[in-house]
Amino acid sequence: MKYVLWLLMIFPFTGVSAQQNEPDTAKVNRMITTVRRIQHTDPQKANKLLNDILRISEARHYNPGLAAYHGFKATFYANRMQLDSAKLSNDRAMSYIKGDQSLAGKNQLAILYNTYGVIYHQKQQYDSATAMYLKVVTICNETGNHFQKVYTYSNLSVLYSFMSDTLKTERYARLAYGEAKKSGDTLATLRATLILLNHFVNYERYDSVPRYAQPALKMAEAKGDIRSKAKILHFMGGYYAENGKDNARAYSFYQDALKLFREIKSPYDEAIVRVNLGNIRLAENKYPEAIAYLREALQMENDLGLLQLKTETLKSLSTAEAKNGNTSGAYDLLTEYVLLHDSLSLKTNEEMVQTLETRYQLQNKEDTIALQQASIRQKNILNSILLGSALALILILFLLYRNYTARQKLQQQRITELETEKQLLATQFLLKGQEDERSRMAKDLHDGLGGMLSGVKLQLGAMKGNLVLTEENGVLFNNALNKLDESISEMRRVAHNMMPEALVRLGLEQALQDYCSSINPSGPLVINTGFYGLDQKMEAATAVTVYRIVQELVNNAVKHSGATEILVQVMRRNQSLNITVEDNGKGFDTAAWQQQNTSGFQSVQSRVDYLRGRMDMKSAPGQGTSIYIECADHG
Question: What share of the chain is helix, strand, coil (3-state, %, to 5)?
Fold first, then answer.
């Protein structure tokens, strides 16, 4: 029994071109290259350099440095399976290099696409992951970046191994190895070698393992690369477990690998090693120890959402429990395995299910026969018949009751769904009515009241030249004209807020930009914006809803946060619409605020519900506020 997978490769920025007249930015570029080299061997030093990169880049407004910082953070989160945080950091990195057509900018873009691919890959969204990886290959073909292609080809090899496509798995592994040789980089060669080893072990081509593993181990030790060394030890364990059938040596290699993975805090790899250790003990008929390893692995897989690996663990654990005498538990585990296996579009092991089910049913029948024989010895035939009839009646009643309760639950679930749909429909009509009324009032104010006030102003202006007024009355007359001007301006501002002209004429992106630019343009408050994909056609109702959400969130931040800087991002890609509003203000207790159920919160939440999205709010006193909204793109 074997299950070995290679951890997906995420590689941070390779650096950006130095600027001779910008010594600070050149220093940032050198630090980026250093972090890339030492992030796995000296994480503490790498983290300190990252803080310096952020500090200098913010002071110099150096976008490539800021993109590099957030790209490294995305790598950090993805390696620890914190996928939502990884995507947020990657989104921020992407916003800093938007539109950069330089060679360095394209190389950074390739890295970010690779990170997106890894995030989708770990979420088992293989179609989206493949699309991202292929974008990286296209960019690298244009820039000649052999180094980055090593990592992308490696990830494609892993992806196709998940889908059991042997030919493509080996093809991309060989392509990665060829690109590593072209790059001439030792680290890239080491990574490509590990992908080949992964392929050899997964597809039982063990004779090639020592020839590649031994020089790779020397390279990893020379570079101080703990992660790669742990993987090589893992592969050697697989070699001895399957090819050499030396379980003692295999167990020793796996234990050494497990220690290193614990040291670098890599729970994904640690779970895989525990599965293999459990399989070793299972092969040695040490069932309690095998069960312990496999149970630990299963817990980690549940925590991390590793469904692909979980199928293998469930199968091995079912076998171990069955051989340890726990037939009922084994049957439950194997049933769970089959359901999960089917949900991932993999083949089911029907023969093993039937075997365990037969054994389970036989054991139940044997128990029933034993009870009946004991009863026959104690009672007469009549009592046995009466007992059997009573048991049958109870069973029938129980089945009828269970069927009734199941139908009741289904009906209640349907009622709940209909109530939810009803509430959503009511919200949609309410929001539409509000916007229609806003539009009507804005038009009436602008065209009706605005025209009347402008006419009054013209008439009073004409009268001023024909009237003979004392100096005091002249001042009062001029003050009245000024107040009339202010009233017209205020009326126009109110009409604009009700239905911005830019939203109707120029679209959502320009309307949002105009709104953010209009807020305190000369004051200490700075509003940074980032919009992506809003130039494409969008339904009017959706555009208005997004505008109102941003308007309410920014207005709350301006009025209540005391912030000096606000970030507004609206991004639209891959059938997804994301809204982010962050500030560096005083923050607040989100739990207490949500319990107050303010009108502003209700307004934002109802619009998020209208878009069928979800809102994530993070804040604490003194730590600013971050609000992230994600919903499906309604076109």
Answer: 75, 5, 20
**Across 480-493, average pLDDT:** 67
Residue 161: closest CA among 212, 203, 206, 117: 203
User: Residue 605 has which token pair?
Assistant: 């939440």
Distances (CA, A) of 390 to 366, 373, 386, 614: 21, 17, 6, 53
**Pair of tokens at residue 417:** 């769904």
- With residue 630 as reference, give the H or E element that holds it: strand 625-632
**What is the predicted pLDDT for the residue at 16?**
43
CATH of domain 1-203: 1.25.40.10
Q: Which of 200-204, 222-226, 335-339 has the lowest mean pLDDT?
A: 200-204
C-alpha–C-alpha distance, residues 399 and 402, integer Å: 5
Q: Which of 51-55, 101-105, 535-539, 611-615 has the lowest mean pLDDT?
A: 535-539
Q: How far is 274 from 299, CA to CA, in rounded Å? A: 11
- DSSP class of residue 449 equals I
CATH superfamily of 505-632: Histidine kinase-like ATPase, C-terminal domain (3.30.565.10)
Q: How far apart are CA 97 and CA 120, in angstroms?
A: 21
Alpha carbon separation from 386 to 209, 379, 382, 389, 398 (Å, rounded):
69, 11, 6, 5, 18
In the predicted structure, residue 354 carries a pLDDT above the cut 50: no
Backbone CA torsion sign across 171, 174, 176, 181: negative
H-helix or E-strand spanning residue 573: strand 565-573
Report the 10 Å Cβ neighbour count for 390.
10
Q: Is 268 helix (H, G, I), strand (E, B) or coil?
A: helix
Please choose, from the candidates 139, 78, 129, the residue with its C-alpha nearest in 3D space to the C-alpha of residue 103. 139
Predicted local confidence at residue 355, as pLDDT: 38
The domain segmentation of the chain, as residue ranges, is 1-203, 505-632
The beta-carbon contacts of 167-170 under 8 Å, at least 24 apart in sequence, are 169/199, 169/202, 169/203, 170/199, 170/203
Task: Find, among 107, 65, 112, 106, the residue nearest to 86 by Cα.
Answer: 112
Give the pLDDT band (50/70/90) at residue 580. Answer: very high
DSSP β-ladder status, 526-532 and 565-573:
parallel
The answer to whether residues 65 and 6 touch, using CB atoms and an 8 Å cutoff, is no
Inter-CA distances, 212 with 160, 192, 252, 380, Å: 22, 11, 20, 76
Q: Which two tokens stand for residue 348?
A: 């089911």
